[in-house]
Amino acid sequence: MAIFLDESSTVVVQGMTGSEGTKHTTRMLASGTRVVGGVNPRKAGTSQDFTYTDAGGQEQTTAVPVFGSVAEAMAETGADVTVLFVPPPFAKAAVVEAVDAGIGLAVVITEGIPVKDTAEFYAYAAEKGTTRLVGPNCPGLISPGKANAGIIPADITGPGRIGLVSKSGTLTYQMMYELRDLGFSTAVGIGGDPVVGTTHIDALAAFQADPDTDAVVMIGEIGGDAEERAAAYIAEHVTKPVVGYVAGFTAPEGKTMGHAGAIVSGSAGTAEAKKEALEKAGVRVGKTPTETARLLREAIAG
């Protein structure tokens, strides 16, 4: 099994015909993802060819149709996942369109969406209750060997029984590489903005319920209290081993670091405070990604 995304997932790409959409649609197809359509009202009724090398080393060319809306794409293809490569000024409207269509999963890759817009489309999705949002400002998610929705490189690792949830894209990739011999059920990059759709807790709950995930790596960073809330959830509800890493131990106070949500105010949101909260919940926290990977190996070895 996997969480949120598996081999039966069928994907459409909003913004597929743009440069980023084209590049990453090619990569998704190469990793075996069932990409069944793109969405661009100006190019509806056309198709776009993608040439790539599949997992067996064979060159393939796939013609992917372009639809005028998410609803049309779903009606024609049965798609249940959309990946959004839509510029920030248009991202809110694109997410609302996906939610109105009732698609099950919307993966918002776009960086730089105003927090007000994200808060509004998050609230709208929550009210409708049919669409899970991942992101924004995230690398997406991958269930290795099954499907890849976003920009995570598919050749870092293979399928296995470790779950990963992370605020950071690059740290997602590094942890997948560090544990490549073990492999992953699913790796979820939730994004580092102040407001995100899927949280650490959402992913932890799903991994806890997944019979094919044996242990979880959780990567957080400075700012906010998401990791502290996750620690409280782990203490109450998670019985599987969890190890953690918190980025930003050396970050200066009061300065935004890379992600919009990664800002420390006074004593709140520091890496040390998050580490203490996680350790109180029984989570072993590494000081580096490599140490965190070692702690995970020790945890599953018993």
Write a concise keyword list for the protein shown above.
302 residues; alpha/beta; seven-stranded mixed sheet; 14 strands; 25% strand; globular
Strand and helix order: EHEEEHEHEHEEEEHEHEHEHEH
The total of beta strands comes to 14
Q: Mean of the pLDDT scores?
A: 94
Low-confidence stretches: none
What does this structure look like?
With 302 residues, the protein is an alpha/beta fold. It is 34% helix and 25% strand. It is built from nine helices and 14 strands. The chain has helices at residues 19-30, 70-77, 88-101, 115-128, 169-178, 200-209, 226-237, 271-280, 289-301, and strands at residues 10-14, 34-39, 47-53, 59-67, 81-84, 105-108, 132-134, 140-143, 147-150, 159-166, 184-189, 215-221, 242-247, 284-286. It has a seven-stranded mixed beta sheet with strand order 3-4-2-1-5-6-7, with helices on both faces. Helix 3 (88-101) packs parallel to helix 4, helix 5 crosses helix 9 and helix 6 (200-209) packs parallel to helix 7 (226-237). The two termini are 23 Å apart. The mean pLDDT is 94.
Task: Summarize the model shown.
The protein is an alpha/beta fold and 302 residues long.
List the helices and strands and how they pair.
Elements: E1 10-14, H1 19-30, E2 34-39, E3 47-53, E4 59-67, H2 70-77, E5 81-84, H3 88-101, E6 105-108, H4 115-128, E7 132-134, E8 140-143, E9 147-150, E10 159-166, H5 169-178, E11 184-189, H6 200-209, E12 215-221, H7 226-237, E13 242-247, H8 271-280, E14 284-286, H9 289-301
Parallel strand pairs: 1-2, 1-5, 2-4, 5-6, 6-7, 10-11, 10-12, 12-13, 13-14
Antiparallel strand pairs: 3-4, 8-9, 8-11
